[in-house]
Amino acid sequence: MKISRIFHGGETMLRHLTISLLCGALLVSSPCDAQNPDRVAAPSAPAVAPLPAAPDIGILLLAFDELPAPSAVLPAAPAIPEAQAPPEAPPEAPPEAPPGAITPANASLGAKNGSFWVAQAQIAPDPLLPVAPVPPLPPVGDVFTPLAPPGRAQLAAVPLRRALSSLGWRDVLPVAPDSPTITRALSERALTRHALDSLQLALSQLAASRNSPPSPELTARAALLASRVGQALGYRAVVALYVAPAMEADGSQNAAFSLLLADSERETAQPLLFNARGNDDTVLRENGAQTAATFLDTSLRAWSSSGGVDRAALATRHLEAARAARAAGNVPEAQDEINQAIALDPLRGESYILLGDMLSASDAAGAALAYRRAVELNARDGETWAKIAIAATTGAVPDWPRALDAGRKAIAASYDSAPLRVALATAQFGRAELFRKANRVDTAEDVELDARKHLERALELAPDDPAVVRLLARGLVTSRRFYEAAQTLDRIAPRYPNDLEIQKQYATALTALTGREEDAFAAYARYWKLSGQKTFEVSTGLAYRTLAQGFDARVDNLGKLARQITSAVATGALPREDALLQLAKLKEEMSLAQNGIAVLLAPNTIAPESAAARVFAADLMDQALEQQQIYLETGQEIARTRASELNRQAVLRLNAARTIR
């Protein structure tokens, strides 16, 4: 077995490791001994004294396979770019996740077909290795799908665990990135894919630095990443393992082992890079395992006992780093930092609150559970109860009862805010809809009454909040209280001309009222223009006639206002500059009307000639406004005369459209 280089120790470390390997050869049966018929084992007492008991240190063997190309260039310290993994569809949480676990959006579903656990059970079960039950394979035709072979690192973890166990280490857990242990940590939000991918890349770059010592920045970054995994899974020692052919010319009898021994308690790490040889894959792995186990045993026995680290201070440092990363827009790094802070100090509520704040935009359910852990530590935190209520109403599957319960607890803790009241109103409107579907109309009306009370309070707290207005309008329109909705939005909708939801509810409410046809068409025209809608088909002829009559009144009134402006200029009652500004606004409204009548589709019960006549009328009135602008700019009376005639023709076309059935 050839050792190519040991870093962080130089020649002295190399000599110590050589001596350790010689001792290790006496402790573990060597495959070379079995091939030497001249060597006979002594039949008497063992050649070495029994090893002292190993320290109580748990060891996590994390085996990575199919790493990025080792030619990856290390960027400027200290950051390593996130590994680019293909996006996965967001699955559900694994069934074994404990109640209350925070479900990630991208957690794997445990051991997959071809994983290390299943494949190892099929190939060579290890009595020391807990193996998940092998599920039946789905048939393809009349043939079962074969299992994919495990990777080199995953197979090498088995003899390495056995070798460490023979040296007295009893808590050694080998895991792969798709193992149930890792999956559970992902499902509980204790670990992220970003942390695993970044560690995978760092390990690949360590392997690429075989011909020169790795940079301190790379080693420090790898130590931090490995520590995240250890802290998430509750293991102090983390051994990240990667195995690859050392050189193409060496062939299959030579492999390069790259290990990183990290102390997750102190967040330090030591890389180990060496070559192993063997006549076949099994011998090669056994030789590599003996070398690695001897080195790890020597290093681990030199570790100081646990408890000498100020975990609270370290958690504070990670909490501050999380805030800084979030402020810089690096949300994955911020989440990893906050996970470390929680692992180091799980009784600090502000960490869970920050985690919830980071998850709220992408994973409302996960945010709600993070907030719930915070209120478990401080049940009088009304603001966090409010955040739970808001998150429960904004997720993909809203939870109305939980939102109401959390909201009431927030108010009981003397906390109140417009977003909280909006969340409570949203929950009540959601319940009302369910009651109406179940034909429980009386109950639905009672719930809607409570929802409106919450909205009224929200308007008191934040009268200019569009979210409050939006929800208020939706609630009033849904309950068919169109007059109240129109009254409210007459005052508020002009403040939010670019808010689609508010403008849509405003148009809907106006359309249901008698005598507001022109306002209804104008509101719909603004909404269609804002949304980019190309067609709008009404369900009945009555609804079409309501909007069409609104169009007629709109065009006629725009023409009247334009005539009044030019007449005022002609008599000297209005300066031309002011008149031009007013006319420009009328032309904008005329353009909206033209766009609106083109979008509005007539049902089959309406003669197509009626719609064509209105489109023609709109074009004539637009030309009339153009001529009036020419008059204001040049003072030419002929332009004013043309505008008057075009206006008259437009009105004739509108009257003709109203007579067509």
Provide an overview of this structure:
A 5-stranded mixed beta sheet has the order 4-1-5-6-7, sandwiched between helices. A two-stranded antiparallel ribbon has the order 2-3. Residues 1-49 and 67-148 have low confidence and may be disordered. It has helices at 10-27, 31-34, 116-123, 152-166, 180-187, 193-208, 216-233, 281-301, 311-327, 331-344, 349-359, 364-377, 382-394, 400-412, 418-437, 441-461, 466-478, 482-492, 500-511, 517-531, 541-570, 576-599, 608-634, 637-659, and strands at residues 59-63, 139-140, 143-144, 172-175, 237-245, 254-263, 268-277, 536-537, 600-601. The protein has 661 residues and is of the alpha/beta class.
Question: What is the element layout, followed by pairings?
Answer:
Elements: H1 10-27, H2 31-34, E1 59-63, H3 116-123, E2 139-140, E3 143-144, H4 152-166, E4 172-175, H5 180-187, H6 193-208, H7 216-233, E5 237-245, E6 254-263, E7 268-277, H8 281-301, H9 311-327, H10 331-344, H11 349-359, H12 364-377, H13 382-394, H14 400-412, H15 418-437, H16 441-461, H17 466-478, H18 482-492, H19 500-511, H20 517-531, E8 536-537, H21 541-570, H22 576-599, E9 600-601, H23 608-634, H24 637-659
Parallel strand pairs: 1-4, 1-5, 8-9
Antiparallel strand pairs: 2-3, 5-6, 6-7
Write a concise keyword list for the protein shown above.
661 residues, 7% strand, alpha/beta, two-stranded antiparallel ribbon, single chain
What's the number of extended β-strand segments? Answer: 9
Low-confidence stretches: 1-49, 67-148
Structural class call reads alpha/beta
Rg over alpha carbons = 37 Å
Question: Main β-sheet, in a few words?
Answer: 5 strands, mixed
Strand order of the largest sheet: 4-1-5-6-7
Distance between the termini: 97 Å
Please count the helical segments: 24
Overall mean pLDDT score? 76
- Strand % is 5-15%
- Helix percent band: 55-70%
What is the general shape? elongated
